[in-house]
Design goal:
The complex is a heterotrimer of chains A (about 280), B (about 375) and C (about 325). Chain A is mainly alpha-helical. Chain A is about 75% helix and about 0% strand. Chain A has two domains: about 55 residues, no CATH class; about 200 residues, MetI-like (MetI-like fold). Chain B is an alpha+beta fold and about 375 residues long. Chain B is built from eight helices and 20 strands. In chain B, strand 9 and strand 10 form a beta hairpin. The longest helix of chain B is centred in the middle third of the chain and has 17 residues. Chain C has about 325 residues and is mainly α. In chain C, helix 8 packs across helix 10. Classes of the chains: A mainly alpha (about 280), B alpha+beta (about 375), C mainly alpha (about 325).
Chain lengths: ~280, ~375, ~325
């Protein structure tokens, strides 16, 4: 009897804590989403209005330039920049990462661990610290305020982690698969293309999603290497709002939602593989 | 014709040499088993034949071509891996046909060959499944099927049965032997299990520490082991080995053990031994038989009275663990009856079938 | 083997072997080139700049060698040391709390059988949020005038006036830490949870049979097993601790009056706002060394910890 009671209390405590945890995780985001659908005057109202009186899509229409009210922030251009920069850099980083990850997973060579460590350490350089010399060099090369300039930087930013993940996914495929294919008449490249690549595909896709999100979310470098609608990305654009006299919380929230949504969808797609990749690559060396 | 010739083959991993210049000739259509404890270089040798490992030195011929520089796909071989290495994203049919597809054979040809292989192995029913849906034995069959569809000159097997349970292993062993009779090709088979080697091979190659210790038919290797290693490695239970010294008694050579026990040296060995020589005396459990069998022993024999420590009944026979000259030895009793521990029995030891090895070199003094 | 034999076997086939040895380097070359061009080269350049009096508005100052003057100046600068100390303190508190909270959350979720997958997925969301969004979100929530937190406290009658979350020295630091921890705890939680899933049952059962109480089982069996996973999380985290720059930049901009200034915001201010690139680069170098030290420390811990996990290489 005592034991049953103890168990039940334990269960209730567990669920209560979980509930509080999920509340802390989700309320901030949900509040931003809610704000995105209400007018700014309601946000600024004192005393606070808790239940939205007048929900609607006006904030979105406004920042995308439809509707009556116009704002001075070219969100569609930022959105396009973000999309182009993030996807291009992701594709390039994936190609480089696949080739590098395959080398780490399948070959033994000199300085292997040192090169791996070197690649990882390159990722530790804080974005803001890296932005200073890149700013100076890029401005001489004419890469400031250009999409290409940011793409190159993001490729370098994503390569180490992409290699780490993809190395892990290739390691999960037994070496014998590739050997069997080679005995079956494949060249090494055919063995990769017909056997190893299809097996690692979902893992590689999630590494790609991760790289995409890193670029999509990056701020420290982008805020210093971009200037105008030619190259400004969404996170940088978000700060445009703070430059105005009164902060347009509602508009900002709408823009935040636009940045969040791809992140949420992609996270949902990627979560399983990401955990597997991180732990496998890390623990099994 | 696909004979394999291995000439002075050496394999290094960095500074570590793991195969030390081995030589081996494998005849066309021969079934050769490389056997030895783990780390003896047998798998490395097989993988060098396959082209999956670089050859550090020496040459390997398949047919009359030197294959050292050829990648696996150009060697006209196929291989069954320990973990089968079936392609998990393909059906059984696609697995079987993959090599032919890569070779750009016509669809009908592929179809025909795949069906032929499936029929030989009895996997027709499984063709549309994926490897994940197969049992261990079925995977094993598919892996063999994938090897035979390509009609290669040489089959390579790398410990193919080690992942199966004991019962299935015996069954697949027979199937591999039958397969060799159906599809006559040269087979090189690697295993650490000496029973597999004995049952399958035309010739056994016993390896240890990167050297070939002995090459011969299963019976040769069993009855005439060249040294103590082969003697203990081949055969179950392992050969009994007791260290002793040659002494002369009444004009005849004897082997003296601890505690003054002696056994006469077989007549044919009298010329090869010298007085005072340190030797190892070896005999199989089958050659130490209880007198109650009342079976005639060919050649000379020696009577021993031993106390039985433990008896392990195996059904048709019972293994008796006794102590002789301070060593645990095993004898075989063929008439099943319960043996209480501590029972003292009389045994006859077949002297002419026993072996004598030089203690220093380990060589068999009979060869 | 005669001498001639040795010679002939040695040069039988150097060609193919040489090519095989080159393949991995060939495969790695794009990665190495990109890192060289975008990270190493700029870093060498910034190292040079840190010894010049380079100011963005005067290009010719790039060649004005000043020796260690920049370093002397920042080492003598009270603001720099304040930011440095604050950064180290910030990292220490954040990483430790994230580890403890992450461990707690992992153990909690591990107990739940129903809806576990959904909870796990939900936990990953903060990790994927842009730091700039996390910063914005909490700037909004902690806003003293219209923030939900103050509104809620006032509505519940827990507080009379507006609490200056982002203005007060300590509260602002707290708010930033809260945002940082909110964003990054899930890295720990998720990896430690993966560790718990991978945990073999036998040692746990053996320990229970051997007479350990639940705390002892946790302390001597579970925790040591989880440590490699914690170090993976630490390593991953130390790779991008500087993401905190984004959060601070949005929430307080280092203000008010430098009270939440971290090393990274200080670098940005000196380099871009004051245009003193040379000096900013000197600080940047110190921040880089700090990051590398953190990462290297955790990485070696990880290597050591995974040794007994049966890791390869």
């Amino acid at each position: 009897m005592d034991r049953v009671l103890k168990k039940r209390i334990g269960k209730i405590v567990t669920w209560f804590l979980t509930f509080v945890l999920m509340l802390i995780i989700s309320v901030p985001g949900l509040w931003v989403v809610l704000t995105a659908f209400r007018p700014n005057r309601e946000v600024l109202a004192k005393p606070a209005i808790w239940i939205p009186q007048d929900p609607g899509w006006t904030n979105f229409a406004k920042i995308f330039g439809f509707g009556a009210e116009q704002i001075a922030i070219p969100v569609p251009a930022y959105f396009a920049n973000s999309l182009i920069i993030a996807s291009t850099s992701t594709v390039i980083a994936l190609l480089i990462g696949m080739s590098g990850g395959y080398a780490f997973a399948r070959y033994r060579f000199k300085f292997k661990n040192k090169i791996f460590l070197g690649l990882m350490l390159s990722r530790t350089v804080p974005g803001i610290a890296l932005s200073l010399p890149i700013f100076i060099i890029w401005s001489r090369l004419g890469l400031i305020d250009a999409k290409l300039g940011l793409i190159i930087v993001y490729v370098a930013l994503n390569v180490p982690f992409t290699i780490w993940l993809i190395d892990g996914f290739f390691r999960q495929i037994p070496k014998e698969m590739s050997e069997a294919a080679q005995v079956d008449g494949c060249t090494r490249w055919q063995a990769f293309w017909h056997i190893e690549f299809p097996l690692a595909k979902s893992g590689i896709a999630s590494a790609g999603i991760f790289a995409f999100l890193t670029s999509w979310n990056e701020y420290a470098l982008a805020s210093n290497l971009t200037r105008s609608t030619d190259s400004k990305t969404l996170p940088v654009g978000l700060m445009d709002f703070t430059a105005q006299f009164t902060i347009d919380w509602a508009g900002m929230s709408a823009m935040a939602v636009i940045i969040i949504i791809p992140a949420l969808i992609l996270t949902f797609l990627v979560q399983k593989h990401l955990i597997a990749g991180l732990t496998f690559g890390g623990v099994k060396g | 014709m696909a004979a394999i010739r291995i000439r002075d083959v050496v394999k290094n991993y960095g500074k570590l040499e793991v195969v030390h210049g081995i030589n081996l000739d494998i005849a066309h259509n021969e079934f050769v088993v490389l056997v030895g404890p783990s780390g003896c270089g047998k798998s490395t040798t097989l993988r060098m034949i396959a082209g999956l490992e670089d050859i550090t030195g020496g040459e390997i011929f398949i047919g009359d071509r030197v294959v050292n520089d050829l990648p696996p796909r150009k060697r006209d071989i196929s291989m069954v891996f320990q973990n089968y290495a079936l392609y998990p994203h393909m059906t059984v049919r696609e697995n079987l046909g993959f090599g032919l597809k890569i070779a750009k054979l016509a669809k009908p040809v592929i179809e025909e060959r795949v069906n032929e292989a499936a029929a030989i192995l009895g996997i027709d029913e499984l063709m549309e499944r994926t490897p994940a849906e197969l049992s261990g034995g079925q995977r094993q069959r598919v892996a063999m099927g994938r090897a035979i569809v390509r009609h290669p000159q040489v089959f390579l097997f790398d410990e193919p049965l080690s992942n199966l349970d004991a019962k299935l292993r015996v069954q697949m062993r027979t199937e591999i032997k039958r397969l060799h009779q159906t599809v006559r090709t040269t087979i090189v088979y690697v295993t650490h299990d000496q029973v597999e080697a004995m049952t399958l091979a035309d010739r056994i190659v016993v390896m240890k520490d990167g050297y070939i210790e002995q090459v011969g038919s299963p019976l040769e290797v069993f009855e005439h082991p060249v040294n103590t290693f082969v003697a203990t490695f081949i055969g179950s239970p392992p050969m009994n080995m007791i260290a002793g010294r040659i002494v002369k008694k009444d004009g005849h050579f004897h082997i003296a053990f601890q505690a003054d026990q002696t056994v006469p040296v077989a007549a044919d060995l009298a010329r090869t031994v010298t007085e005072g020589q340190e030797v190892i005396f070896g005999f199989r459990a089958d050659d130490l038989m209880p007198d109650e069998h009342a079976m005639p022993i060919p050649g000379a024999s020696s009577r021993l009275r031993l106390k039985v420590d433990i008896a392990e009944p195996l059904g048709t026979e019972t293994i008796l663990f006794c102590n002789f000259a301070g060593k645990d030895i095993q004898a075989k009793m063929l008439n099943p009856r319960p043996v209480p521990p501590g029972e003292v029995m009389d045994f006859s030891l077949a002297i002419d079938k026993a072996h004598l090895f030089d203690a220093a070199s380990g060589h068999n003094l009979r060869n | 083997m005669t001498q001639a034999d040795v010679a002939s076997t040695a040069n039988i086939r150097p060609r193919r072997r040489r090519r095989r040895n080159l393949t991995p380097f060939l495969l790695l070359s794009p990665a190495i080139l990109v890192i060289l061009f975008v990270v190493l080269l700029p870093l060498l350049f910034s190292f040079y700049t840190s010894f010049t009096g380079y100011r963005l508005i005067k290009p010719e100052t790039l060649y004005q060698w000043v020796g260690f003057q920049n370093y002397q100046r920042i080492f003598a600068d009270k603001n720099f040391w304040a930011a440095f100390g604050r950064t180290v303190l910030f990292l220490t508190i954040a990483l430790n709390l994230e580890f403890l909270l992450g461990l707690g959350i992992a153990l909690l979720i591990n107990r739940i059988t129903w809806g576990q997958r959904a909870l796990r997925t939900m936990m990953m969301f903060p990790m994927m949020f842009s730091p700039i969004l996390v910063g914005y979100q909490f700037k909004f929530i902690f806003n003293d005038n219209i923030g939900i937190l103050n509104n809620a406290l006032q509505a519940l009658g827990l507080s009379e006036g507006a609490i200056p979350w982002l203005v007060d020295k300590y509260l602002a630091m707290f708010s930033i830490l809260f945002a940082e921890i909110w964003m990054s705890t899930s890295v720990f939680a998720i990896l430690l949870l993966a560790g718990l899933f991978a945990m073999p049952r036998d040692p746990l059962e053996a320990a229970r049979v051997d007479g350990c109480n639940p705390w002892q089982v946790f302390r001597h069996i579970t925790l040591p097993f989880l440590m490699p996973f914690a170090f993976i999380a630490m390593t991953i985290r130390s790779l991008d601790v500087a993401r905190a720059y984004d959060i601070v930049d949005v929430m307080t901009g280092g203000g008010p009056a430098g009270r939440t200034e971290l090393l990274w915001t200080l670098i940005a201010r000196v380099g871009y706002d004051n245009a003193r690139m040379g000096q900013a680069n000197a600080m940047a170098y110190i921040s880089i060394l700090l990051s590398i030290a953190f990462t290297y420390y955790f990485f070696t811990k990880l290597i050591a910890a995974r040794k007994y996990m049966g890791g390869a290489d």
